[in-house]
């Protein structure tokens, strides 16, 4: 059995404005992942620049920061077996046009710059923990047991 881990997920401002928070949360719940942290916030400039720091030299960086700070986001931590990889496979590719139907970006997105959701990169070791630390204090994360866990694992 793979390791249980936590991953960081965020419904971006376009997903919030389009009323997709509930649908997106339902997908992760139904998959069997466990919500252990959530906050509805508006990201400020500093947090945006930290979060997307890996892209600071890219031509799209300023637009990306402007977009992610423009309106509220729903920031969450989800826990489960191999959660980072599982969530990324549910999210799809960076470009919705390359994302298969059935994935979140493939079902809800059309445009690269309006791709509805962020999730920690499973190919970047430690990205999940780094992003969780950036957005959440330890005491904002809740340890609990889902009643169906015995039947998931
Ligand atoms: P995210 O970090 O937002 O979850 O997206 P991702 O891992 O799939 O993609 P990443 O490479 O980390 O890029 C971050 C966001 O920047 C925008 N982007 N624009 N114009 C471009 O070529 C370009 N490339 C990336 C996308 O909105 C992407 O989600
Ligand atoms: Mg990324």
Automatic annotation (TrEMBL):
Gene Ontology BP annotations: CTP biosynthetic process; GTP biosynthetic process; UTP biosynthetic process
UniProt xrefs under PROSITE patterns: NDPK_LIKE (PS51374)
Entries under InterPro entries matching the protein: NDK-like_dom, NDK-like_dom_sf, Nucleoside_diP_kinase
Active site per the UniProt annotation: 118 (pros-phosphohistidine intermediate)
EC number: 2.7.4.6
Binding site for ATP: 12, 60, 88, 94, 105, 115
S-adenosyl-L-methionine is among the record's keywords: no
Top-rank taxon: Archaea
Top enzyme category: transferase
Cofactor entry: Mg(2+)
UniProt KW Metal-binding keyword: yes
A Pfam short name: NDK
GO cellular component assignments: cytoplasm
Localization: Cytoplasm
This protein's UniProt keywords: ATP-binding, Cytoplasm, Kinase, Magnesium, Metal-binding, Nucleotide metabolism, Nucleotide-binding, Phosphoprotein, Transferase
A GO molecular-function annotation: metal ion binding
Domain Nucleoside diphosphate kinase-like: 4-143
UniProt-listed HAMAP family: NDP_kinase
Function: Major role in the synthesis of nucleoside triphosphates other than ATP. The ATP gamma phosphate is transferred to the NDP beta phosphate via a ping-pong mechanism, using a phosphorylated active-site intermediate.
PANTHER family: NUCLEOSIDE DIPHOSPHATE KINASE (PTHR11349)
Recorded family membership: Belongs to the NDK family.
Name of the protein described by the UniProt record: Nucleoside diphosphate kinase
Taxonomic source organism: Halovenus carboxidivorans
